[in-house]
Write a structure and sequence with these properties.
There is one protein chain. With 441 residues, the chain is α/β, with parallel strands linked by helices. Helix content is 39%, strand content 13%. The chain has a seven-stranded mixed β-sheet, with helices on both faces. The chain has helices at residues 9-21, 65-68, 77-87, 98-110, 123-138, 156-159, 170-173, 184-193, 215-226, 245-250, 276-279, 302-318, 320-341, 370-382, 398-421, and strands at 44-48, 51-54, 59-62, 116-120, 142-146, 176-179, 198-203, 229-233, 256-259, 270-274, 348-351, 358-361, 385-386. It contains 15 helices and 13 strands.
Length: 441
């Protein structure tokens, strides 16, 4: 497939209709057509395994599936079978289903560092519940977030800190403060400055780089010493770092942790997990004031919980995390070799853990460039690779990886021409892609 010859007429028409009916044309800003080269944002018809087809019947090898949520591949047989079994039995009742008990037992057996769990539908539900619980337990108003990490919640306490803060009172945003990742001294200074005011430290325990030695255990000690709650956002690290998340890999136990994305393989399920002493504050078996922790009509839909159980079982029994790492290592090595061979090894840079790869597109001064990202994405799409990142799913084959590397090599050749000319504009064919968080359209 070559998108220069196939201009995606059905996708363009569908995008226009989407914008007419849905603000932003998508239900997640990261899926918006502004994230793709102009007129080259495919609208998906269906997917199978590591491949998706758009409404123009073009097939793509897909990366970052479902914003990292579909880690086993689309329509995974084991997951679909579990979901179908529950669909015939009813999905939501006036009292808890026995599936809720089974799902909690399965989750806590897989993440043994947690003692209780409560399920919801998306990541923001559970991260905000963790913040509310931390504030209730400590009596402190402030939330300390890792300022080097891009996203925690759609709710005001976080979104108010981004360029898209319209509609959020300044009084709310002022209660959120930030600390740098990997810097214990700076974090201690923050906790000292706001002594007795910080309810929790919330961060992704790992990102594009490994935690510095002693960093997570150091945060654990700081949280204990300053009387605040340590919260690990494991939306991305959960399952991809180990079946038990980053806490299972690095051996540092948070007070609370939040899971989602890979947990349901595309089905809507997330989890707040943590120490019994804290979690029970949102229950009925403690003497203190009640905390409105999580109460969601659809949080325990049986088919989504069945999907989560099937995902957890598949990861453990089939060694999925190890496979994700092996596939990612093969891809990263191939991309780096192709980029170096074309003389752009310092400009197309693969970063992150092998199971969670992203890429940076750098200009002639080795600075991040949206224009060069646009060029790169155009050439990937032209070769049938849909890759806003290089995050792998376990459904990818070695043949898929090899084909991707071939397409990357072709893209790198064009990238080199643009660098030599000093201006990528002739290769963009439209406006550059845009960052998600920006103040103006």
């Amino acid at each position: 497939m070559d998108t220069e010859e196939f201009p995606l007429p059905q996708s363009r028409q569908a995008n226009e209709r989407l914008h007419a009916l849905i603000p932003g044309g998508a239900h997640t800003y990261a899926k918006g057509d502004d994230q793709y080269p102009e007129n080259l944002a495919p609208v998906i018809s269906h997917g199978r395994g590591a491949h998706v087809w758009d409404v123009d019947d073009n097939r793509y090898i897909e990366y970052g599936s479902g914003l990292r949520s579909v880690s086993l591949g689309h329509a995974h047989p084991r997951v679909i079978e579990a979901v179908r079994r529950e669909l015939d039995r009813g999905s939501n009742f006036v009292r808890p289903s026995i599936v809720e008990l089974a799902a909690a037992e399965r989750f806590l057996a897989t993440v043994p560092t947690a003692e209780m769990v409560k399920f919801a539908k998306n990541g923001s539900d559970v991260t905000t519940a963790a913040v509310r619980l931390a504030r209730a337990v400590t009596g402190c108003p402030r939330v300390a977030i890792c300022g080097d990490q891009p996203f925690f919640s759609v709710d005001d306490w976080f979104i108010g800190t981004t360029p898209m803060s319209a509609g959020i009172p300044a009084e709310t945003t002022e209660l959120t403060v930030a600390f740098p990742y990997g810097d214990l001294a700076a974090t201690e200074e923050l906790l000292t400055r706001y002594r007795g005011e910080v309810a929790c430290l919330i961060l992704e325990p790992a990102g594009h780089t490994e935690p510095p030695p002693g960093y997570l255990s150091g945060l654990r000690e700081l949280a204990d010493r300053h009387g605040c709650v340590l919260v690990f956002d494991e939306m991305i690290t959960g399952l991809r770092w180990s079946e038990a998340g980053a806490q299972g890999l690095y051996g540092v136990v948070p007070d609370l942790s939040t899971f989602g994305k890979a947990l349901g393989n595309g089905f809507a399920v997330s989890a707040l997990a943590g120490r019994r002493e804290l979690m029970e504050r949102g229950g009925l078996r403690h003497p203190g004031d009640r905390v409105f922790l999580l109460s969601t009509t659809h949080g325990a839909e049986t088919h989504s919980l069945a999907a989560a159980m099937a995902v957890l079982t598949t990861y453990v029994e089939e060694g999925v995390t190890a496979r994700l790492h092996a596939l990612g290592e093969r891809l990263a090595a191939g991309v780096r070799e192709a980029a170096a061979a074309m003389g752009v090894g310092d400009h197309i840079v693969v970063r992150g853990r092998a199971s969670n790869l992203v890429f940076a597109t750098l200009d002639e001064n080795r600075k991040p460039s949206q224009r060069y990202r646009t060029l790169f994405l155009r050439r990937l799409l032209a070769g049938g690779v849909l890759a806003p990142s290089f995050v792998v799913s376990s459904a990818l084959s070695d043949t898929d990886i090899d084909r991707t590397v071939d397409v990357v090599a072709q893209a790198c050749a064009v990238y080199r021409k643009a660098l030599d000319s000093g201006d990528p504009t002739p290769w963009l064919a439209g406006r550059p892609v845009k960052p998600v968080f920006r103040r103006r359209v």
